[in-house]
Amino acid sequence: xKKIATLLMMSALLVGVxxxxxxxxxxxxxxxxxxxxxxxxxxxxGASLPGGWDxxxxxxxxxxxxxxxxxTHHQMPPTGSGPEMTRFIWNFTVDGKQxxxxxxxVDIGKPDVFGGQTTERVGRADVTGHFRLEGECVTDSxxxxxxxxxxxxxxxxxxxxxxxxxxxxxxxxxxILPLKSVKAKVGSVIGPGPDQxxxxxxVSHYAERSLSPATVIDSASQTVSYKVPRK
Length: 231
Known about the structure:
The structure is a single chain. By secondary structure, the protein is mainly beta. It has one domain (28-227). The protein contains one helix and 17 strands. The strands form four sheets. Strands 4, 5, 8, 11, 14, 15, 16 and 17 form an eight-stranded antiparallel beta sheet that branches. It starts with a helix and ends with a strand.
């Protein structure tokens, strides 16, 4: 009986040790979803582009002092977009203040004369992923074609998980956003942003410029707001 009691006590202690660790594991929150086979350059063709940017979902999780945003795809090019071909945009708010992610698999920095950013990206080459946090976008309507200018605030860390033999990849990328970069704290709310070209989309472009909505490849809308948890 003493042996049985000892075993039961050890089992209870083991459960008590393991349970808190599992309970403390950060939980991801899905902010939006998108149906498959609709990445068709925004033309309503009803057929997805082979190997194109077919959005699936976007989620966020708090890890330490960072928020990690992950975007998954139904379809995704095996090597990413390449420079000056396509970019991903996600407009969002933090406690009502507007921000935007711009993401590319490759980016070769160059002046953005129309955006007034003539030297900020010159000489910068991100060949393993480009993750940029931008401030509130402003539309310049003084020219025949309106330009949406979103000032860059910070270059962020991130990663891609694409098909690369023998790794099948999860057809996703992750952007790591420090809480301090957007002045977020416990209780801050990450909400949907305004429609600037789109709210969330993959869009083709040249020199950071896209014609909206004709060049939108696939788009989605954030339907869930996220409150930053304490842990």
